[in-house]
Amino acid sequence: MANSYDVLIIGAGPGGLAAGIYASRSKLNTLVIEKGVIGGQAATTEEMENYPGFYEGVTGPQLTQHMHKHAEHFGCHFVKDEVVDLDLAGYEKAITTKNGRYTAKTVIFATGAEPRFLGVKGEKELKGKGVSYCATCDADFYEDLDIVVVGNGDAAIEEAMYLTRFAAKVTIIVIHDEGVLDATKVIQERAFKNEKIEFVWNSVLEEIKGDGIVEAVAVKNLKTGKVTDLETNGVFIFVGTVPRTELLKGKVELDQRGYIPANELMETSVDGVYAVGDVRQKYLRQVVTAAADGAIAAVAAEKYMHEEENFKNEVLDKTKAVAVMFWSPFHQASLEMVPLVEEFAAGHSEKLDMVKIDTYRNQRIARRYDVQEMPSILLFKGGEVAGRVTGQLTREKLEELAILA
Amino acid sequence: MLEVNKENFEAEVLNSKGLVLVDFWSPKCVPCMELLPHVQELEGQFAGVKFCKLNILENRRLAMGQKVMGLPTILVYKDGEKVVELSKDFSHEDLAAKLKEVTGA
């Protein structure tokens, strides 16, 4: 099938691009679907001075364009489209887009996050008319004009500093007490030294005013309760992000804020579905951590396909009965019983085959068949479980299993 | 697409009869650069609309005069009056739908 892939990646930010590079380099048939800009949020970030190896600075667009070329170099496919529905149950997953339909053995979610709206009066109406969430897009409008920035995390302070290259004055509205910012120390120090930056402490933005274009903002002091109008030409809002996981609701486990919890292998609650980058519940949302997630997910996806296909070929599709031993080299008792089980299987080789699964390396299949004790032996016939013995194995117990084969 | 600027904006857009589309863009605006080829594609489908683009780096005041303070923005004028206004998070599909609406296609 032309639209059938090993790895299908949704989103072409740094996480999705890194996954694309690793997967296609492993010769997996890989597709990246992106509805908007290749590079994601990073493509709208001008200042980037902490990506390893680029201490002299690289811009977000430059870095992500390189990642895009890198993925294409290894044969990764790209399509511009928007995913509208997903069927993630089962080994073959179906992905419906506005313009097509795809199937894939694994899906890597790299849909990222988008700027959070402040939700104040005038914000929606004046978007693109002085209200902005993208400094690189709109900074040029503000040469020698005044700007208000809302937010005080790393992104807010860094973007405010970028805006001082254009604007006459940048006023940052900060909810905290004087001198307290959420941004890291290095960034804070630079901002405090910047002569074009002014701070309004203990305050929140209450309303954005203007007739067709931003003219002023109403700022409320939380200590005094007083609301003051401040004239300005633009409002840049950097108050965090929200994950793009609307499509996954009810299909993959999400946390209260909508982020996807994933383990160290980037596995989500659904087999063969991975989450990488900003969309994942994580401690640090940066280009470098998104890229790392992407690499891990691609490698985990490859191993998953290999294991699942092996299990299908060696166990589920066999006409002969198969005894599957779940063991672990770290579980002494199960380790000691391996020779006994091997001897038993050899004695019945005319009616059954034997397969061993190391649960330290592969917990997924054990979980699927509810294997909780080590060792366990499950007898498969025609793809179904026909018998099971667990715990202390004896020759008698094994012989009972052989009768079922 | 016709490049419009301070010199020709009035003649080509405001004093022009019929439908005129103006794509406000900047080479620094990544979403604008992504959108531009799609707008060019739509030009072939809507023969009754004059397609223009305006680089805001060279025509900042002119854009602001049209109350454009954010990118990407696309305006459609009919006999010099704004009839469509799309700004920030819109897709080329949204634009195509709007164009169908105003052209009656």
> How far is the N terminus from the C terminus of chain B?
20 Å
The CATH class of the largest domain in chain A is identified as Alpha Beta
Report the CATH superfamily of chain B: Glutaredoxin
Largest sheet of chain A: 7 strands, mixed
Number of strands of chain A: 21
> Which stretches of chain A are poorly predicted, pLDDT < 50 over at least 5 residues?
none
User: Could you tell me the mean pLDDT of chain A?
Assistant: 94
Multimeric status of the protein: heterodimer
Strand content of chain A: 25-35%
Main-sheet strand order of chain B equals 1-3-2-4-5
- Continuous helix count of chain B: 4
Reported CATH architecture of chain B: 3-Layer(aba) Sandwich
Q: Which ranges of chain B are low-confidence, i.e. pLDDT below 50, for 5 or more consecutive residues?
A: none
Proportion of residues in extended strands of chain B: 25-35%
Radius of gyration of chain B: 12 Å
Keywords:
heterodimer; A: 405 residues; alpha/beta; FAD/NAD(P)-binding domain; Glutaredoxin; 3 domains; seven-stranded mixed β-sheet; five-stranded parallel β-sheet; 9 helices; B: 105 residues; five-stranded mixed β-sheet; 4 helices; 5 strands; 28% strand; globular
Q: Would you kindly provide a written description of the structure presented here, covering whatever features stand out?
A:
- The complex is a heterodimer of chains A (405) and B (105).
- Chain A is built from 9 helices and 21 strands.
- With 405 residues, chain A is of the alpha/beta class.
- Chain A folds into 3 domains: 182 residues, FAD/NAD(P)-binding domain, CATH 3.50.50; 107 residues, FAD/NAD(P)-binding domain (3-Layer(bba) Sandwich); 87 residues, Glutaredoxin.
- In chain A, strands 1, 2, 3, 4, 5, 6 and 17 form a 7-stranded mixed β-sheet that branches. In chain A, strands 8-15-9-10-11 form a 5-stranded parallel β-sheet.
- Chain A is elongated.
- The two termini of chain A are 37 Å apart.
- The model of chain A has no long low-confidence stretch (mean pLDDT 94).
- With 105 residues, chain B is an alpha/beta fold.
- In chain B, helix 2 links the parallel strand 2 and strand 3.
- Chain B is built from 4 helices and 5 strands.
- Chain B has a 5-stranded mixed β-sheet.
- Chains A and B meet through strand 8 and helix 3 of A and helix 2 and helix 3 of B.
